[in-house]
């Protein structure tokens, strides 16, 4: 029964975040969404912050695991972008990107949420970094594009696009289009002949030095 109640509270906290935002989350709203007494929030988790931290961690682990096979099947940057589009649409429809965005907002003023939120982002970033590193291993741009930093930028971009779409959907669509063009450019670079690839590598080294 205890495990069942904890699970209900975790789901209730996520539902409360989707419905009310971080500012509207309380023991009362969580308990209402979970269908339990609000005193159980403190009995099982000690505080609302600890409950939100656990909900953030467990929910992100489950969502990342759900996409892991699809990440491992990606064979090009364009496929990675297509998967990113699908992921964004699915997570947005389920309200999961909204949850993460709300927790990010909460962490700006509540340092107790920072470890959980940064850890959740790190889970997504680690998956994306593995794909990028694998795709760029033989590419001339591998010397310029650092996988860890690029993966962090991609993760941050997808959270930002969720917020962007709410106020300017055409601009968000334009951002996706820009990413598609970068993926096409990477494909063009990968298709260069050996002489051109060597010249490009030399130019990139010059720019970096």
Topology:
Elements: H1 2-20, H2 27-34, H3 39-45, H4 48-72, H5 77-94, H6 96-109, H7 114-136, H8 147-167, H9 169-190, H10 194-208
Helix pairs in contact: 1-2, 1-3, 1-4, 4-7, 5-9, 6-7, 6-8, 7-8, 8-9
Short note summarizing the structure:
The chain is mainly alpha-helical and 209 residues long.
Instruction: Indicate the CATH topology of the largest domain.
Output: Tetracycline Repressor, domain 2
What is the average of the pLDDT values? 82
- Helix percentage range: over 70%
Give the overall shape.
Answer: elongated
What's the CATH C level of the largest domain? Mainly Alpha
**SSE-based structural type:** mainly alpha
Would you give an account of this structure?
The protein has 209 residues and is mainly α. It has helices at 2-20, 27-34, 39-45, 48-72, 77-94, 96-109, 114-136, 147-167, 169-190, 194-208. It has two domains: 1-46, Orthogonal Bundle (Arc Repressor Mutant, subunit A); 48-208, Orthogonal Bundle (Tetracycline Repressor, domain 2). It contains ten helices and no strands. The chain is elongated and about 70 Å long. The termini are far apart. The model has no long low-confidence stretch (mean pLDDT 82).
Question: Main traits of this protein?
Answer:
Arc Repressor Mutant, subunit A, 10 helices, 209 residues, 2 domains, single chain, mainly alpha, 82% helix, Tetracycline Repressor, domain 2
